[in-house]
Design goal:
single chain, 82 residues, elongated, glycosidase, Beta-glucosidase, GH
């Protein structure tokens, strides 16, 4: 999962990287992929787009929630690494 990936990056590149950024603009993927349906996975609901499936009222929030959880776990692993 993302925390394992982040931990591997800390171990391999920690001596060369001064600042770490886990998630850049977490809302963009949620909005374009799960609200507007413009990017993968292309999920949305009317009137936001012409997608086969999705719920623009709930899915973007679920995505951002899980991104925040993965960021928090990566931060915890970074603190143990330091």
């Amino acid at each position: 999962d993302f925390a394992d990936y982040a931990e591997t990056c800390f171990e391999l590149f920690g001596d060369r990287v001064k600042y770490w950024l886990t998630v850049n603009e977490p809302n963009v993927q949620a909005l374009t992929g799960y609200d507007l349906g413009l990017h993968a996975p292309g999920r949305c609901s009317a009137p936001f787009g012409n997608c086969r499936a999705g719920n623009s009222s709930t899915e973007p929030y679920i995505v951002v929630h899980h991104k925040i959880l993965s960021h928090a776990e990566a931060v915890q692993r970074f603190r143990k690494f330091k």
